[in-house]
Amino acid sequence: MEFFLDEISEARGPRRFYAIVNEEGDDVGIIFLELLPGNSLYIRNIQVAPEINLGLPGVRALREAIKEEFPEARSIVGHRISGMRKRSRHQFTEVEI
What we know:
The protein has helices at 55-69, 83-87, and strands at residues 3-7, 15-22, 27-36, 40-48, 75-80, 93-96. It is of the alpha+beta class. Strands 1-2-3-4-5-6 form a 6-stranded mixed sheet, with helices on one face.
C-alpha cells in the first residue's frame, strides 16, 4: 500500500488540505494538517472513502507520504478517534507517530 499527498489548498499559512492519492492515482480521501512551532505537524482530520480500510499498513503508508511532503517535520501528532469511539463515551487519545 502506498499513498501520495496532493495539496488542494492554495493557502500558504499553517493549515493545509491534501488529497490522499493511492498508487493507481485515485483520490481516496483527504487530510487536513496544521504546521506547529518546532517543526511538528498536527493532523486535524483524515477522511477516507468507505471502501478504504487503512489499518496499520495504511497508517504507515500515510505517515511515509506525510514525511515525504514535510521532510523537516520532527513529529506528527493528532487525536485518534473512529466513528465507533466518537459515538461512545471514550476520551480522545492523543497519539504521536
